[in-house]
Amino acid sequence: GSPGTCCFCCWRCPRFSAQEVAGKKVGDWPRQHRDRVQIKPQRIRLPQHPYHPPEVGRGPEALGTNVSGFLLLSTLWVPFFWIFPRFILSLLPASPFLLTFPTLPLPTAFQGPTSYHAIQISSFINSSWAQTQGSGWLGDVQIHGWDSAANRAVFLKPWSKGNFSDEEVTELEELIQVYLNGFVLEVQDHASEFQMELKPEAWLSAGPSPGPGHLLLVCHVSGFYPKPVWVMWMRGEQEQPGTQRGDVLPHADGTWYLRVTLDVAAWEAAGLSCRVRHSSLGGQDMVLYWGNPISIGLILLAIIVPFLILLIGLLLWFLKRWSYQSIS
């Protein structure tokens, strides 16, 4: 139910004298030459999918980083949305993309180095419904938007469209729609990864004595995911108001740890328990007893055994009395 957000940013200058692309100089070329500059496949390094092993004989420069399929699609959003501004775009050196586009005349306020951000917010309410919002920002000014209902780009400034023709805008909108459809399907296919649950491990210990005749009972809960968890010291079904909950702390592996304490008199410790409630437990709470819990079987045994002894004694007394009467 939580929206996922992908934000992409690059630093660039609206105009460069030259930019190296595929070993050739481009920049202030005539429009007819600049328009012929294309993104060559060998200039793009796509991340290696984690479920596909690296190809033998290919160096690390051609593989990228192992990421899930939806992140791979996220990187495809970058060239689609960045085609809107008609000015030279240069990505950071660490980026897997190196793209160049013709320039766009910008207002005087934007002359000089600035940044352009493309933001995508996709909300997934359930397995069959998703909605995506998009926006493009030149510095602190939003110049582009995305109408998800009409699948159309929204140009918020008179110059936001640049020198794109209507046909080029339509083609770009179709590309973005193809990406969005693929992104939604990929996320829904991997929904189980976003709903990962790990069961907690719990144990009890005694902390430093808070005073004479008192015990500090400590309930440790570790290794659970996701973060929300409910832990309480109980006596039967009654919550103990003196329960002190610490901070939920992260482990290096992404799971969580929680410490919950209770200060009680030593003679009151018997019968207390720590109850843990977490989504990974399937609605069945984890209960840990302080000391040895008194089982129902022992209680029944303690009642039945004296009763049987009394019954046997009465039977023997009756038989003995009956035998004396027979002799008499």
From TrEMBL:
PROSITE patterns, sorted: IG_LIKE (PS50835)
Membrane-spanning intervals of the chain: 294-319
Span of domain Ig-like: 200-280
Bilayer topology: Single-pass type I membrane protein
InterPro entries to which the protein is assigned, alphabetical: Ig-like_dom, Ig-like_dom_sf, Ig-like_fold, Ig_C1-set, MHC_class-I_related, MHC_I-like_Ag-recog, MHC_I-like_Ag-recog_sf, MHC_I/II-like_Ag-recog
GO biological process: adaptive immune response; antigen processing and presentation, endogenous lipid antigen via MHC class Ib; antigen processing and presentation, exogenous lipid antigen via MHC class Ib; positive regulation of T cell mediated cytotoxicity
Protein name in the entry: T-cell surface glycoprotein CD1b-like
Tree of life domain: Eukaryota
Organism: Ursus maritimus
PANTHER family: MHC CLASS I-RELATED, T-CELL SURFACE GLYCOPROTEIN CD1A
Keywords attached to this entry: Endosome, Glycoprotein, Immunity, Immunoglobulin domain, Membrane, Transmembrane, Transmembrane helix
Molecular function GO terms recorded: endogenous lipid antigen binding; exogenous lipid antigen binding; lipopeptide binding
GO cellular component, one term: extracellular space
